[in-house]
Protein 1
Amino acid sequence: MSDQIKYDTTYGGPFDRGSADSWYRRPRSPHYYKGATYASQRIPVEQMTPQEIKAYHAGYDSNEATGGHKEWE
């Protein structure tokens, strides 16, 4: 049995937003969207549960570990 936590990777969710912030080299700023990114309600860190904040950071850390970043031309 794996000890790794499985996070919900739904587009706009905490894990997705963390990985996107890392991809675009934005600073950590926990948040997520209720639905589609930028087209639904943005939930700021003050309204997130500890589990949602953990998922955001896990997404950020996951992308940082792979070293994938947007290359701006």
Note: The longest strand covers residues 31-33.
Protein 2
Amino acid sequence: MEKKLVETLSEAASSMGMTLTDRELNLFSIYYRNLLLWNKRINLVSAKSEGDIPIKHFIDSLTPLPFMTNKSARLLDIGSGAGFPGIPMKIVAPPLKVFLLESSHKKASFLKHVIRTLKLDEITVINNRVEHLMADNSFRDSFDVIVSRAAFKLPELLRISTFFLANDGIVIAMKGKSVTDELKDASHISETSGLIYTSCHDIRLPMTHNLRKIIIFKKSRTL
């Protein structure tokens, strides 16, 4: 299975204009093994088959990278779950300083285990709820990039992001194909939060051809 995993990841990444190194493919293989093992005990992914993981989770997690000019940014992954997209992004862009925010203690334990197993540096798990973290000013205006993979509706994500983002920082929202209503609902929040809508990009995942949307906002001022 791991040979097939490596072949699938290599082919899929290539079709998106990326080349995964042997190191990166090895780390994804280890990640994959641990994900399957822990998924037997806690609900990390709801893949219908093992074949869903390489494209639906690993490759999908890499889609924000082309839209980031600063590959050594401080990045906050809100609602990281099983580590998507933060851990795959860290694997492919090691200079990133990644923070994984996850409220579930069990999932946070998995994230810490994977980080240790993969020997990743400058990646931190924050086991806390968003609202509790926002009550403490320690992380206010602290991040260059905030990324979230369908963990929140856009209006709520923008409310949260304006607290954590540094000036000129960006929010990258990873969404499915139906976001028209969310964008409409988010327009007022955007205007009052200092987050300016900059772009929306359609991404077709390789092999599955599932449509993803990358929606980007930029923080234009410090509130």
Note: The chain has a mean pLDDT of 92.
